[in-house]
Structure formats: structure tokens, C-alpha cells
Amino acid sequence: MPDSHLPPVDELLSIAVSALGGSERQGQLTMVRAVQKAIDDEEHLAVQAGTGTGKSLAYLVPSIRHAMDSDRPVVISTATIALQRQLVDRDLPRLSEALAKELPHEPTFAILKGRRNYLCRYKATAGWPEEDEQDQLFDPREVSATGRMVQRIQEWAEETETGDRDELVPGVSEQAWRQFSVSAQECLGANRCPSGAECFAELARARAGEVDVVVTNHALLAIDAMGDLPVLPEHEVVVVDEAHELVDRVTSVVTGELSEASVMLAVRRVGRLIDQPVADQLMEAGEDLKALLAAAPPGRIDELPQVLGLTLQLIRDTAWRCITAMGPRNADKDDPDKAGQRKAAFTALDEVHDTAVRMLDAYGHASEADRAEVVWLDAGTDRRPPCLRVAPLTVSGMLRDKLFGERTVVLTSATLALGGTFDALAAQWGLADGKWQGIDVGSPFDHPRAGILYVAKHLPQPGRDGLPQQYLDEIAELIEAAGGRTLGLFSSMRAAKAATEALRDRLDVPLLCQGDDSTMLLVKQFAEDEPTCLFGTLSLWQGVDVPGPSLRLVIIDRVPFPRPDDPLTSARQRHVAARGGNGFMAVAANHAALLLAQGAGRLLRSQNDKGVIAVLDPRLATARYSGFLLNSLPPFWRTMDPAIPRAALKRLAAEPS
Known about the structure:
Its EC number is 5.6.2.3. By secondary structure, the chain is an alpha/beta fold.
């Protein structure tokens, strides 16, 4: 229960809003009370809060209050670096200053990232096993560019106070950074490392243990919850912002990868630490894997081919022989250089061995419903060779046991209620049978008055052979009516580029396409020049915040279902069906609903924004699942009459900016 000596959460919110020059919003007040109640009752909470609600303030105020009350930090987890930076650089400093006089002390905060994000002082100054240079493909320009980045990092290492990679602007490649960082598995540990006392990662963790609010990301949250050793300071409350991304980020953390490159990295790292014939056995197994992956078709592997099974067994067994030949893990603990080499070798060998074991264990189940993981072959690219991947068919059990079982969790986003309820995401999070509440605090925007949702029912269904000419004509006419000012969200990069090429000469307004430059610069250019249009794919569906007259029209080419041949989503769909559920609705339709809602959310970013969402795919009006998708979207005024959005866009274009 709340401590009576602290001001009530309503009062703290009012003080904060007044100090920050804002005005109270009903949705924000509803949310702040709900978050406080969830913390008091130790009950999980899902909050859908539309753009403009001020949800970060609505969860930060009760979080800070609880930290003061319990003397334990609250962890705030985000999916994107942009939101982390907003919280740490803008929201928390202003809020802390505003509440300082009302609380026992001025609220404190820190950002905590995974160990790989911090410079390793020891690795930067000592001998260390060489990293894998294969992916440079011996291109002299790449080698030279990497060399320049390495030099920049070395110069920066002499002056940085945090060792945080994000301080490096412009950024550096993963190839260069790997030479100065270690994973948690490779780290010697602060007590054994000669640089342990001044380790940037340890110093960041120590700071996080002393503050009221720790800002981190979904990946580190998952690693902390599911790992054997805690990464985050001890805490009772977690707020997951951008919670619609949680399942995908956790899945990425627990996805395993096996390739010739990972096997050869283990061979190189084990180097002279064991007898050569034993290392040679692992190298030969890696060469067998390389030949097999080069010849095999990409995609999901439902049944384990005999030759692949034998190769995986060979990798598993030879990796284990190398691990055994290495001897005790704590040998050479008094010699940091040798200890570092041994730790790096064990880490690479463990990863190869454990991933091979996971892949073999993914088979042999009595039925599809009993299967826990899926294995697939990723074809790779010109720069990245093929590899095998393994991922869980669901992370709900992990989240239920490891994240929600130990603490109170508040999950929030502008898009959580799919089909009008929280049930779909609650099931993915493992909350379906647990103690939780879901609320939608609405939005300060008047969606029916500010926006039109136009579904082009008269167009043909989208096919697999690119954009039909009717779609290109529709796009051109809508953009002409809007005078540019259009964000085009496409289901694939190929479709975005095809539309750009077909329409650049046809339209009288500038047309940018994702890939022409960095996405950040393209969005900036789009925002600053009103007639400009921007076409692109996935990152634009969720990452664009352009208030004002530069954005009046959002075009969505098709309902964004996952690709039918996507190995993970297709396997998850089949797994749900094998257990008696509706695989299409539980996986494909949920995926499409989330992205549609995120895409539609690009239109209204401030109180004065107006415009049109145009969905060219007629299935949003005609398919049996259309009601579910429409109920996942904000309540825009809806029409299927092409004349209405064109007239509205022309009126908006005629308004003075």
C-alpha cells in the first residue's frame, strides 16, 4: 500500500504537468491512477494509450513514487534507442527537477545496456583472440574503412567517461566495434580482470544500482529475466513501453544460429589451447556444414534430413571433445591473458555445442503440438553466408515464468488492443490465465473529425507480381490531390522501389525512397519540405513522427501479413492450429493488425493534424477477418468512396500552412 508521507500520485502528476508547461489530459490521469493501483495491488497491467496521451509521464510519476517508497529502483524497458534517449535526455531530467521539492530527494536515473555496448578497457589494451574477419571478403576498401574506424575508437577510448558505443558519432561498424567489446559470456569478471576496477560496464551497472529509475531495452530485460546471473539491479516493478515489440525482441534474444563461420571462430579461438588433431575434427565438421548449407534449399526444416542430423551430431560431439580437452574452466585464472583466451574459446565452443543440441532436440516429437522449436535455413546474402537458425515457437511460457512471475509489470503502447481486446497480446505474453488488467485510456485526438480511413474496395486484390497498374494510378491521384505530403508504407522494399520508379517522372513533387540515404536523413528531409513524399517499408511503419502539414496522407499498399514462406511465423501458425487454435488469426492476423495500427498511427502526431489513411488492399473491406483488423485501428471516419478522400486532401492542400 502507498506510504502516507508521500504526496498522492494525482498531486505529483499535477505538479509535473504544471512545471513542464502542459495541460492535464483525462487519459493521462486515468493511466497514472491505473499504474499506481497496479503497483499497490501487485497486479500486472496493460495500458493502451494513444499518441499525445503523455504516457511516459503517466508511468514515470508512479514509478518514481514507488522507488522512493520502497527504496528499490523501477526498471523502464523500451524497444528503441530513440525512446531511451527521449526518456534519459528529456523526460526524466525535467520531471526530476519538477518533483524534487515534493519528494525526499531529487529523483535519480541511469541508462543500462548490454555489456557489448560498452568499451572493454582490457580488450582495448591487451592481447586478445583475433575476431572473425571473414565477412570483409578481402575487399581492400572495407579493410581500410574498418582500419579508420578502429583508429577513431582508439582515440575515443582515451577520453570517454562512459565507454558507451552510442557516444561515437558517426557510428562505427560491428566489425570494428567487436575488437573493443566483449559479451557477458566472454567477460573475465570484474574480480579477475586487470581492468575490472575501471570497467565501463561494471561502472554503469553500479550507477544503475544506486538510482530510482533504470532505463534499459527489451533485449537486456529478457537476458536479465532468463539468465542465471542478474544483469539489472534488484527490482519489484517493470514498465515495458513499446510493449507491442516485446515478443519479437525476446524471440531475437533466444534465437540460436549455427554456421560455418561460428564453427570456424570456435576453431580459431581454441587454437593452440588443445591438441591440433582435436581442433581439426571440429574444423572438418564445420567444412561439412558449409558444403551442406551451400547445397540445401532455404526455408523451414520440418523433418530432420539424415545427412543434416549426422552433421549436427558431428558438430555437437567434436565441440564437446574440444571443451573436454580444454580442461577446467578456471585454469590459468591468475594469468589474465591466458584466462581471457580460454574464456573466449569456451564461449565460442559452448555456443556451437549448445546450438547443435537445440537443433537436434527440435525433432523427434510425437506430434506437431508437442514441438517446442523450429529450425530453418537462412539463405544469407552476398555478404553473409547461409546459416541455420533455431527459435522457440512461443515465448509465452518464458515470459510468464521468468518476467511476470517475479515482479509487477506494466505494459504500454499506442497499439495493444487488437480486434478491440487485449486477449491476443496477453496470450503471447503468457498472461492469459494470470492476474492482470487491461485498459484503453483513449487518445486526445478526435479521430473521426481529424482523419479519414479510405479503403479502396474497387481495386483488385494485391497479387504476387508487384503492384498492379490500378494501384499506381490510385497512388498518383491521391498524391496529386494532397499536393505531395505523403508517406507511402509498403509491404516490401521491392514494392516501395517499384512504386518510386514508376511515379517519380509522373508526379510533380519530390519523391524519396528508403535506401536513397539514411532513414533518419530521409525523414528529416520529408518533414522539412512540405510537398515531398517518402516511400518505404518496415521501419517507416513504426518509426516516423512528423507532425504538421508535411504529412497529410498515409498510403498503405496492402494488409501487412507476414510472408507465407517466413519460417518462424508459418511454424507458429501451424503450431497453434495443431493445438486446436486458429493459427491464421493468432499469428498472421495479429501481426497484420499490429502493423496496420502502427502505420495508421503515423498520421495524427499533434492536436492540429488532419489527413487521410488510404489502404489500397480491398481485403480490409471484404475479407472475413476485416472486422478484426478494422477494430484494431483508431476510430477514423471510414469510407470506400474514392471521391471523398480526394476532395478532403484538396481542401487541406489549399489551406495556408
